[in-house]
Design brief:
single chain, 232 residues, Rossmann fold, nine-stranded mixed sheet, globular
Length: 232
């Protein structure tokens, strides 16, 4: 059984449906709980891959969250060793930063259910091949990033061009929450009441819309994560 390092920043932003993909590849998740003060390893060691999850902090808040520097160094080590890397939300921003791209606050937060589109010409990507060119995705982010040099944008939304990107053959960043489950969405809505009020969003509506959109999102996620885990 292979081992995958998983960096987690808050209790309710775990692997979600990514866990099923790892299970299908007979890969074991080795959690590093940055939110609980667990140290970030200096390197990936013998791990087969690295997954960096989401969280409320920003890449530019390294003074407040020193472990973010350690995470970027860990990502850089995985890239140098050509280990598969997967970044989700904050994880995608840290990955972009490790690749030299700028990460900054967005003009407005993108929260809730919004349409995304696969980039034309990238429908044959190993992870996204055969998936509908557009679907409703679940979002919760206030930061965006420039596309790293050498990377390809794969998915965009109306508000955010760089929603997902690929670097090399097995390194991917997803700004939107393709890993979402019903529990993750409920916990995010509960924890993010202040953010919802800030932008005038309705948490109850987000939860209600999940009944329509989450099954399809999970179908897409199930296929994508199994394909990524197959690269381990």
């Amino acid at each position: 059984m292979s081992r995958v390092l998983v960096v987690q920043h808050v209790a309710f932003e775990g692997l979600g449906t990514i866990a099923d993909g790892l299970g299908a590849a007979d890969a074991m998740a080795d959690y590093i709980r940055a939110d609980q003060g667990q140290p970030i390893p200096a390197n990936v060691g013998d791990a087969a891959g690295l997954v960096v999850m989401g969280g409320p902090m920003g890449v530019y808040e390294k003074g407040r969250y020193p472990f973010l520097r350690d995470e970027i160094r860990l990502i850089e080590d995985a890239l140098v060793k050509e280990k598969p890397v997967l970044g989700i939300c904050l994880g995608s921003q840290l990955l972009a930063s490790a690749l030299g791209a700028e990460v900054r606050k967005a003009k407005s937060k993108e929260i809730g259910w919004h349409q995304v589109w696969l980039s034309e010409g990238d429908l044959d990507d190993e992870l996204l091949s055969g998936i509908d060119s557009s679907f409703m995705a679940y979002h919760w982010h206030g930061d965006v990033f420039e596309l790293p040099a050498g990377a390809e944008v794969l998915v965009s939304s109306e508000a955010t061009r760089n929603q997902a990107f690929r670097y090399g053959g097995s390194t991917y960043g997803f700004l939107f929450h393709l890993e979402a489950t019903g529990d993750i969405i409920r916990d995010m809505v509960k924890a993010g009441e202040d953010e919802l009020q800030e932008i005038g969003a309705d948490g109850d509506q987000i939860l209600a819309e999940a009944g329509n959109h989450l099954p399809r999102l999970q179908q897409v996620g199930s296929l994508v994560w199994k394909r990524w885990a197959a690269s381990l």
